Structures are given as structure tokens and as C-alpha cells.
Amino acid sequence: MTKTTKNIAIIGGGIGGLCLAQGLRKAGLDVTVYERDRTPADRLQGYRVHIDPHGARALHDCLPEHLWRAFLDTTGQGGQDFGFLTERLDLLALIETHHAPDPADDHHSVSRITLRQVLLSGLEDVVRFGKTYERYERLPGGRVRLFFADGTSETADVVVAADGGNSRVRRQYLPHAERVDTGITTVAGKFPLTAETRKLLAPRLVEGPNNVIPPRGVGLFCAPHDLRDLVVAEGGIGATEQEGALMDNTGGYILWAVGAAAGRFPGDISEMSGGQLKDTVARMIRTWHPDLRRMIDMSHPDTVSLLPIRTSIPIDPWPATNITLLGDAIHSMTPMRGIGANTALRDACLLRSALTEALTAGSDPVQAIAGYEAQMREYGFAAVRDSLRSAEQFIGDSRVTRMGFKTFLRLVQRVPSLKARVFS
Fold this sequence. Notes:
Layout: E1 7-11, H1 15-26, E2 30-34, E3 48-51, H2 53-62, H3 65-73, E4 82-85, E5 91-95, E6 108-111, H4 112-120, E7 127-128, E8 133-138, E9 144-148, E10 153-156, E11 158-161, H5 168-173, E12 179-192, H6 203-207, E13 210-212, E14 218-225, E15 253-261, H7 274-284, H8 290-297, E16 305-312, E17 323-325, H9 328-331, H10 340-361, H11 365-395, H12 399-414, H13 416-423
Helix pairs in contact: 1-2, 1-4, 1-10, 2-10, 3-4, 10-11, 12-13
């Protein structure tokens, strides 16, 4: 079998686009990533990301062995059991998640900064920075010409839109595919984890991720990113030259996020500083358990930011062409289930397999893309719907619905067979 030489252009160098580039490069295919950032450090994000077994398997399959090991060596430690708690820290249910024998089938906590470093490694001749995509046009024979804001253009045989929720490729290619505001707003921050601060919180808050469910209207999620055993070489993967508490990439912390319907926050919240956001959240939870209030109060204001929650609207199938999409560019979802990045990684791995098989065999890549899109639409839009449902449940504006959910969780905790059936 011989490889068919075709150039694959990826628009956007986020998690999904870079994972796809690593996989295609590993397979010996011709790939170029066009990224609008001027440098790798232009748009760093300072929070952790949860990698589930779908995401871990994708990273394992797409990355060369040494980068897979680098990923594993820089992940956070700690438990994976997921707790549902009241605002008084009473346990409603604890969902046990045991470590898998194979790390590629396990859950991981990783810094977004570190994951980006891993995914960019070895792609110096693949990623072109400072290339802001504007539009495309089809050429005779089927190739695609890409136009960039700097006045340059490039041609490609296959184009992959990995340019996020505000995708310009999607806007031109599938103009009816909408992304809308959910009406939910979250404020997130980082509580520093040190030998001393660990003693200030209830053990459950440090041991694993939790959803805190008060009577109605507000929700809190928190998850530890524990780096006690991490040793980072100067200038190596895991290190960062960025200053400030938000971009500190070597200290452990608990990520927390408080969410509510936008109307529950002050009207000027989008103009608030980190300190003002923190004070706003502190007032919203002033009657909650002291440990939860302490977690907010002791977070550095520089780590606190506003995160409006948006979601895509699932659409009907479209005819496959040599232009396709992955990740937030097609199925942007709320962060409430922690599956957005993992779904993008799953896309990247599936598309990598489809294109590699087709181009290695000399067959039509459009047929491969059609197969990829059929699967991607099914699990991707299912994730969108599940994520939106979780977001609505997270803020729980109906007291009756919230009470019913708590009753259900207590029942699940008391009946192991039911817990196994519901959360398997």
C-alpha cells in the first residue's frame, strides 16, 4: 500500500487541532496547522482540564511514545471518586471511580498550559503562528484556497476546522449551525493547595471532584489539581515563563466554579475585576459551610475570572466534502460535565484514523470524512445535549426539582446496585 500525497490544513491550534496534527504527523501524512496566535504563549489558559478515558486513549494513539510519557509525568495526582454534597458539606452520594490498569483507559487531571506544551512538541515545522484565517474558496479540481488576514493564501486538499466555538470556517461552511448563550454564568478561581492549606478544608474537598448542590439557583463545582510529587525541569514540559497566580503551572490547587442564571449576578459583572468577582461569589454563598467560604476567600484575585456559558445547537446531517470540523467548531458545549476537551480529542483520533486509512490506501478522503462525521455527529451532539442538561441541573432554579434530585442521590447512595446501574 502507498500513501497518497495530499496536504491537510488544520485551522486552529487548540487541543483538538494539535492532537489531530500529532496523529497525522505520526502517520507520515502532510499536515499544516494555521494558528492565529503569534506565539505559543499568547493565549494560555490557567485552569486544569479533566481528561477522561476517551481523551486519554486519543492522546495515547495520536502522540509519539515520549510525548505520551511526558503527558503522564505531568498530570495531577489524587482521587477520582466524584462527590455530590449539600452546601453544608453533607454527603448525598459518592461515585467511586477506580484507577484503570492502563493509563490510556484512565482519568487524568492536567494543566491546560502543560497539555498545550505536550501537543506542540515536535510540531515546529507544522504549526504556523500568526495566521488568522478569514475565508476559503473552492478551486477547479476540488482543492481549497485559504485566505488569511496578513494577505497570504494557501491551498489544501483537505481542510479541518478546529478553530473553536466562534469558528469562521463553520460560519461559511455551515452558516445555519448556531452557537447560543445558555443564560448561565460562572465565576471560576483557584484555591492554592499546600501542606498548610490542605488542613483548612474538609478532606472530601481535597480528595476528588465534587458538585455542591444548595437548595436552588446556584451550583458549585470543585476539583483538586494535586501536584505534590511533580518535579519540573527548568525550560521543560510543565514549566512556564508566565508570571502571576493564574498562570502558575507548578503549584497544586483546587479549581472551583460557581454558576447561576445570569440574572442572579449583578448587571455589571462583565466589568468586574477578579477581586470584585470573588467578593460577589462570597456574598452569594455567605450562608454555606465555612470550608466552602474559605476556599473562595483564600483564592488569589488574579485567578478569578468570568466564564459565560454557551452551547451549540445540534443540526441535521450535511453532505460530506473535503472540508470537515472537529471539537467546539461543530459541537461546542457547556463545561458542566467536563467532556468538551475530551470530545474534541475523540474527534481528532477518529478523524486521524479515517484520513490515514483512506490516504494510505489511495482511496477518496471524502468517503473517510463522511464516515467520521456520521459517528462524530452522533456522540458529539449527544454530548452537547447531556452537557446542557447538566448545566440546567447545576443551577437548579426549581426548588422542587432540586429536592427531587437530592432525594434521588441519597437513594442511589443507599442502594449499591442502583448506583452501579445509574453511574456505570
